[in-house]
Amino acid sequence: MQYLLRKQIILIVAFLAITLAALSQNDEVYQPNHDDLPYYLGMSVGVSNSYLSFKRGVDFLAPSVGSAKLIQPLQTIYLNLGLTGTLRLTDHFLLRTNPTLLISGSRNVFTYEVNTSTNTGSETYSIPSVIVDLPIGFKIQSDRYIAFRHPEFMRHYLLTGVKFGFDLGAEKAAVLGSGQNYANVIKGTDMALELGLGLSFFLRYATISPEVKFSYGLRDLRKISEPKYPLVNSLDKITSNFVYFTLHIEN
C-alpha cells in the first residue's frame, strides 16, 4: 500500500512538473491582486495513508481469554475529496479549513491473535470506513518569489492545526479475515494534531498547491465500556495516524 501511495505522489508531481516546464519565460505576474483578497475558496483531491498506533498494557503478554496477545497495525489507502476555504488575517498568516471525504470501502485495521487454547493463527480485523475530516488550522506563508522564469510565481507555506474526524462506518460490525462478524471496537470520532507543508504555484487562472500533511491522533479510540469488547482489553490506548498528499486548486 505504501507503494501505491508513492506511485500516486510521483504521478501527480510529474504532471505538475510537465505543466510548469511547458510555460515559456515572460514578465507577466499572474494573479497580481491575489494577496489582497480577504478570503478565497477552492477544492482538493489527494490520497492518504492511515494506520493505528497501539500502547500495550502491562498485562499484554498475559491477557485474559479473548483478548489480543499479538496485534499489528495495517495500513489503509484512502481517496480524498474536499473543499478549501482560506481567510486572510495578515499577508503571511491565514486561517484555513478543508472539509474532506475519505473513501476506502473497507479499512483493514490490524491483524491479531487471541489468547485461547484453540488459537490457530492470526486474523485480519476490518471495518467499513468512510471518514469525514473537518480540519482547521493556521497557514504561515512566505512572500511570492521567482520560479520557472516567472516573477512572483511561487511561494511555500507551513500548516499547523487540529482535525476532527467522523467515521460513518463506526456503528457497523467489523469483519474478520475468516468472514465472521465481530463487534466494532474502534470509536467513530477522533481528534488529531496536524502539521504540514506545501508549495503554491500561481498560474494565470488558478493557484495549484501540492501539500504533504501529517496527522497524529490525540483521542483514545478503544471501545471498552462493555465486556463485549475483549479484543482491546490488554491495550492501554489506540490512536489513529494519517499521512496526506493533497493537491489544492484555488480561485
Give a brief description.
The chain has 251 residues and is mainly β. Helix content is 8%, strand content 57%.
Q: Mind explaining what this structure looks like?
A:
Helices cover 8% and strands 57% of the residues. It is mostly beta strands and 251 residues long. Strands 1, 2, 3, 4, 5, 6, 7, 8, 9, 10, 11, 12 and 13 form a 13-stranded antiparallel β-sheet that branches. The two termini are 33 Å apart. The mean pLDDT is 84.
Set out the fold topology.
Layout (H helix, E strand, L loop, with lengths): L1 H20 L17 E18 L11 E6 L2 E13 L4 E5 L2 E15 L8 E19 L3 E3 L2 E18 L6 E3 L4 E2 L6 E14 L4 E11 L17 E16 L1
Antiparallel strand pairs: 1-3, 1-13, 2-5, 3-4, 3-5, 4-6, 5-6, 6-8, 6-9, 7-8, 8-11, 9-10, 11-12, 12-13
Largest sheet: 13 strands, antiparallel
Summarize the amount of helix as a percent range.
under 10%
The proportion of strand residues reads: over 45%
- Overall residue-averaged pLDDT value: 84
Q: Roughly how many Å apart are the termini?
A: 33 Å
Radius of gyration: 22 Å
- What ranges have pLDDT less than 50 throughout 5 or more consecutive residues? none
Number of strands: 13
Q: What is the count of DSSP helices, taking H or I runs of 4+ residues?
A: 1
CATH class: Mainly Beta
CATH fold annotation: Porin
* Tally of distinct domains: 1
Helix and strand sequence: HEEEEEEEEEEEEE
CATH architecture: Beta Barrel
Principal-axis shape: elongated
What structural category characterises the helix and strand content? mainly beta
